[in-house]
Structures
1.
Amino acid sequence: MSYATSAANDPNDLLDKLRVFAQSNGWAVDGWRDRTVRVGKALSVHAGSLYATFLTELSGGDSVRPPPFVGTFGHTGFAANANADLQADASAQVWANYVQGPYSAVHFFSSTAPQPYLHIVLETQAGTFKHFGTGRLVTAGVVSTGQYVYGSQWYYDPSYINNPDDVRHALAFDDYWTNYMSATTRVRADFDGVTPRWHGVSDSAGDTRALYCGWRRRGAPTNLLKDIGHSTLTGRAPGQPLWCAVPRGGDLITDIGHPPDLRFIRLDSYAPGEDLVLGSDRWKVFPVHRKNGPAGTPNSGVYGYAYRITE
Amino acid sequence: MWHGLWPLTFSGQGDYFRFPPFWDGRASGVLGSEPTYGRCTVEVPQHIGDQRRGAMQPLFGDDFFDRIHVEPRVLNLGSISSVQRRAVRVWNAFRSRALTLTEAALSGGEGIVLTAPGMPPLPFAPLSERTWQVAVGTDGPPVIGATLGFRFDGFPVLPVVITGQRIVAFAFVPDWSRGVLERLTWRTDILTSPLQVEQRRGLRSTPRRSFEATLIVDGRERVLLDLAVFGWGGRTWALPVWPDGQWLGAEHALGVRVLACDPTHRDFRPGGLLLLRGATAFDTEVAEIESIGADRVVLRHPTTRAWPRGTRLYPVRTARLAEAPKVTRLTDRAASLAVRFDVVEPCDWPVLIDAPVYRGHPVLADRPYESESLSAGWQRALLFLDNEFGAPFVLDPADWAAVTQSHRWRTHGRAERARVRSWLYALRGRQRAVWRPTHADDLALLATVAGTATAADVANVGLARFGGLRPGRRDLRIELRDGRAFHRRITAAVSLDEAVDRITFNAALGAEVRPRDVQRISFMALSRADSDETEIEHHTDSDGAADAAVVLRAVRDPDQDDGPAPA
């Protein structure tokens, strides 16, 4: 059973539920402890050679970046400590902000083969969702590791809260981003002899560690599906793999793969949490944050993610 | 920038142009005239020499193809009261693999007819689709739970689950000489303190609803009713909401999905059912509503027969017989039956929108219908201690009387009836409070009140002496002859002499009011209904008259700027 839905009261309870879920789905739990510097918990897990740590942070932030937070970072091996700077080859953390409990529902998606991943969808209130997780890309070309970590941070300023296309919101696997929020997608793509090589979405041109992915930027890999990814004839929408690419220098950009069992999908005709059945596959679709939220509330339009349920 | 729709990765810098630009020795267009005819040479870029490698980019094809699609996987038919036909499509989405269907079997399919496109083993060419027709009839077990399983060679069974319940239309029309009684029953849990402050919890989100009517049936219909109740008396029926009936004003051919009718203020709802009934109870059709317009109802599936003008059209609620009908035999061919149905689905109704609001609660400004006298009274929670020796000891802990008064509506037409129903839903049984004016001539204005004044002189009726500015006798509704109305709270009252009381309002009226402008000044009490059960007596269908009545009892709820409840 690689999909489970549950409920949780707060971020710490959520990590505890995640720990139980991961353990019963072939992940090994390396560490589960209170954090020492900040208030929160840390959970370190691994499947095969993919190591990740999830953190909660119950305070901090401000009105446009409200707490509590859940963070994720990837690393290699495990040292008995919760801090990213002490883990080998660690990425920077990616955060999901404002994961205020108690949650209406929590959805866990996991797999350990062919690619390991843990995808978590939080329904913080009815109709409002947060996404975070880690895993290994279905890699393209000669890329080793391909580990990714992602979160989702909305910018809760009243002027921008209702605009799904605003660059201040940091969405998972979308590179339309400027530095109002910390980046929410990081992918490790070791190539050209450099290791470790973590790429993150970037807002500076010529950044050699940039990551290109997503749909909101005009030149983004799946931008076309953002506009035409919904059939007005049948009301259906296809799920689009979230391609990731990295710069190789000299204006060359190389595709490195896409996260497994995760798609970008338009939700014009789908309700949040709806099941899509495609042959023998079941997909669950969720809004990026809140589908067509009314004015003054978070609104992620009809952008959504589809998660495959693998039995 | 590169664009994601190319299945190859390539550099964004053009490979198709030489770089840097070179001069081939010909005169440019600026310096000399170009030849306008003759041969033109185009250099074709030689990509063969481009030694870049690409990789396949997966798109959504991999999610759709190379698998078997069965649509839909769940057939939830809801409440069935006529034959329902649905198509199940099976698509071999393998791009290069032929499959063989070895079995398409129905289990638990009593009353379901399956029409297959061929007998197994059935070959499916790559990318081919076939359709199975499933027809679910009305005869069979009351709860439908069937599975249609498709088995392909080398694949697990692909099940299609068929669910629903069979209901049958109760297509008999009531005898309107006695009308139809509709009962709405909420449930409220009330905790009362000794000081008569209440905590009220509504235990039902929607009221239970029941209908009582008398039917006169004769001939074949009498026997049909007898047999229907005999055979299906315990099942759920599609009950027409009789008061909301209407006649179709136009011919409707077979197979239409749009019925021209007037659905406003009637109990139609998207996803619900409606009943078409011809001349007898044998000519009926129940259809599912997809959407509702201002002058039409769109059905989810086409009608199965033609319906002429004059066909009765009713909204439908699923209901159960509350008890066995009481039969009065009139002759050997005719009978009169008293039936009572309990609706088994939640019944919602739009909220009240046009009522004036005072201190956070709506004001019941409708004049009561006074063909029967309205009862009124005072309920006081007195504590008696009587030891049978001396005079009994009596204590009035709340020092307050809950004034009660009945309110009766007589409605004409659907809009009024819908409004009254909204009022009943606003009251939610005993849970919600509204402002109830006495609708009586309580105070008489003696002198003109300026628009900025907050004091008024009224005829002395003992307000200063007995009223005590307590809930129930401290809020006023001042109705003027021109239709305007003011709601004010009395903040002070003094007796000037035996004829005049001077009262002070919490706010100026904002308009000059002369005694002759005033139609009526009534006290208002914040009140709730005294019973969770309300009846609407439909004398005719909803274009005609109906009555509803409710007894309202004052409460000590804190209102908007009242501060906390009295301790």
Note: The CA atoms of residues 77 and 164 of chain B lie 5 Å apart.
2.
Amino acid sequence: MTTAAPAEAAPHKNASGSAEQTPRFRRPGRIRRIALPYLLLLPALILELLVHLVPMVIGIVMSFKELTQFYIRDWGTAPWTGLSNYQVSVDFDAPVGEALLHSFFVTIAFTLLSVGLCWLIGTAAAIYMQDTFRGRGLLRALFLVPYALPVYAAVITWVFMFQHDNGLVNHVLHDQLGITDKPSFWLIGDNSFVALLVVSVWKGWPFAFLIVMAGLQNIPKEQYEAAALDGAGMWQQIRRITLPSLRPVNQVLVLVLFLWTFNDFNTPYVLFGRTAPQAADLISVHIYQASFVTWNFGTGSAMSVLLLLFLLVVTGVYLLLTSRGRKTADV
Amino acid sequence: MRRIRAAAVGAVTVSLLTAVTACGGGSSTGGGSNDSPKTLTYWASNQGASIEVDKKVLQPELDKFEKQTGIEVKLEVIPWPDLLNRILTATTSGQGPDVLNIGNTWSASLQATGALLPWDEKNFTAIGGKERFVDSALGSTGAQGQDPAAVPLYSMAYALYYNKKLFADAGIAKPPATWDDLVAAGKKLSGDGKWGLGAEGSNPSENIHHVFVFAKQHGADFFTADGKPDFANDGAVDAIKQYVDLMAKDKVIAPGNAEYAQNQSVSDFAKGKTAMLLWQSASANLESQGMSADSYGVAPVPVQSGAPGTDKQVNSIVAGINLAVFKNTDNVDGAKKFVKFMTSDEEQKVLNTAFSSIPPVKGAQSDASFNAGANAVLKDTLAQSAVAMPQVADESQFETAVGTAVKDLFADAAAGRPVTTDSVKAALEKAQQQMPTK
């Protein structure tokens, strides 16, 4: 859309300004210069189309089809079913819809807690690391280890630690500290939610730490010095200077963390396998189960589309609210 | 320079566009061709203690086949948890292997996709005839009334493995023959960190195999005669309750087993932590974990009363692996030759000995080596008291739905929550309602 303006504006300038012959020589070069960025973007655009948009469109088409094992070999021949996959997904009195709704609430609770804790720990650590002290570099590197480790390797280690009989977690909580009466189950039953949350926060907070630390570099030291002169304590400085200055950074950080956590598939899948315990039945694994375990790809696709719509609405509302907030703040 | 850059951009664009159009091409619907007669790809399921062990067993045999026929077989051994997904992906994309292993309980489900070559009279003749195979094994090759979707390769059955020393220490003279005996023995054997019986509570497939046998012993089925799910009937509820009660009420299974899904119960048995194990063809696995063959005994899986047999005295599923050919193979004749080779009497003896399974081919099964020790028990079970899992298109979903319900019930039992007839019934009703409707 923006291409039209400079392309039209250019000849105007030329015609009014320079000698008659120059445009003939210049024009091809200029067009090339204008077109080049777009040409360079083209591979990325095509890849984006291939990797995201084409599958998305296929997914939407699938959600209107009765796609079971009888048709997966040639899914184009699956019969159309109209909205019935959507009806099944949102019929909250029937088991499929009820299970989806349950999974949705579990995911919301999990996401809010995980993002909140990741942000809190990340911000606290970043503020703490602002001061120079011996071993700061080492500590900073250590903090980033969970972020740098491959997800599978990290989560499978947690699986070992959470085991009932031989796991480190029960060994510490029960055998050494005596906090629990008997060894607890972490990978099945209700505690699985806690296990999932612990791993998710452990994995996610270093990202928050990294981003907040970068944001902190942009706050001028003079502000803190002036505040200190005026007698503001540490808490007041954090509340009045640090947090407001971090606002634009946090807006992006929280949104990104929210979307990542809400859609996280790897962590629950490696922790619990193909079928997650009720208490930790995140929506991503739930949809996977509906599609690839129950072989009901039509319903699974409908659930995916519903999830996409939900995330679009949430992101839209969030961006609207935060941008409005920023405008009023600027004024 | 610029020209080169433009050309490069153009080339990338063209290749990407080609990829897009190729994606939209869809899969062929024909019955295979002979476009590539000199090669075959083979997806083998992981049968031995590791993928490396399987490769060591299979590669010399594949080399033998190449020498005989000039056809090179490219082998890939696929771990169990990935196998079904890999087959589904291959089915959807049409980019699969030529020959592959399938779990024999999935036969009817995969048959319904239409991706596998049907084994009609002509195809069976090409590999020496249907009569060469044992009937019980043929019962797990696809839905009744249709041409089989696969050919039996390895047969297995469940048996009761018991630790001789622990039994002697507890003063138990012989392995239990009924569930009451098993519970009584299990109670004697449990204590001091040791437990009577091992289980894989978080593995839906393992769960489903056991509860299916229990259901048969209660005279129940999970599907009606016309193939509709009927998970929550009284017999099925009693069957599942009886199985979960081994942990919940009888307390002969350790609560920790509720989260087992990686064959930890086999390791526990090999280490002497549990005295009994219900498993299919465990010998090779136990020996690879350092348990000598003379330290454990193998007996038939217990029944409700009397001795194993048909109907209510069924004590195992017909477990095993089938060999299937992808319909859109580029070497259909070679694939059939390969199936013929793998199911020949000679190869059957080599392969089934290596994987401690039983040959589903009559000519090999009669060999003396399959008539002694553990093999004799497995062979008798297959011949007399094992039944095929439901051969319906929804079998794979049934395994997951009911197997997961049992997993959740085990989790309840482990946490000390009551497992009642009502809670079992509710779990089964929910599982049934989650099955796809057609």
Note: The first helix of chain B runs from residue 2 to 23.
